[in-house]
Hints:
Number of strands: 11
Helix content: 25-40%
CATH class of the largest domain: Alpha Beta
Number of domains: 2
Shape: globular
Number of helices: 7
CATH superfamily of the largest domain: Glutaredoxin
Strand order of the largest sheet: 6-5-4-7-8
Structural class: alpha+beta
Amino acid sequence: METNNMNTMTPMPRIGDKAPSFKAKSTQGTIAFPQDFQGKWKILFSHPADFTPVCTSEFMTFATMAKEFEDLNTQLVGLSVDGLYSHIAWLRTIQEKIEYKGMKNVEVKFPLIEDITMEVAKLYGMIQPGESNTQAVRAVFFIDPQDIIRAIIYYPLALGRNFDEIKRTLIGLQTVDNFGVALPANWRPGDEVIVPTAGSCGVAKSRMEGEEKGLKCYDWFFCTKEISKEEVEAKLYRK
C-alpha cells in the first residue's frame, strides 16, 4: 500500500478538504483513490472487522443498494483493517451462506480495501481511540466529483448505519449543487427547499412584500420555494 503525506500526526480530514489520496489492494484489484473514480461521487466507508454480524448486515445492505448508488453516479468503496484473503472469504460467506431480512445470494462487487497497517484508516481519521485502537469505526465520507469531502458521518462500533440517511444525504448534496439552495430538516425530494438569505436590505424588503415570485417567507431570513420531486430527480448525476 502507498499513501501520500501520512504520519502519526496526520490531522483528520474535514468537510471542504480535498480527499486524501492513497493506493491500496482491494477485492477488485489495486486502486488509486480517489483518482480512479474521477467524475463520480464517492462514498468511502469503513467497518470494524470481517466476519462480524453488524458489518455483515451493512455490507449486505450496501450491496443490495449498489445499483441505486450507481444510478446516482456514485462509487462505493469499503475498508477494514483486515487482510485481502479475509475479505474474500467473508464476502464469499455472505454470498453463499447468509440470508437476512429477505437478502440472500448477495454479491459484493464494489472494492473492499485491505488496510492491515491501518494507514488509510488513520489517514481518514477512522481510528477512534475511545472506541478501539485496533479497529476502524463506522465512518462514511461523501466525496464529490471534484474529490472534495462534502459530508462525514461517524457511527460507533456497536451501531449499524442508517442507509436511508446515507442515500438521502447523497441526494441532498447533489440537489444543493444542482439548484443552489439549502435544505431544511428531514428534507426529501419533493419537499420545499430553502432559498439562500438575501444579501441586502432591499432584497429582504422585496421578499417580505411578496415581490419575489414563488417564495414563501416565514421571516426575512427564512424563505422557501417549491421544487418538485420530478425536477430534483431529472437533474441528479445519473449515468
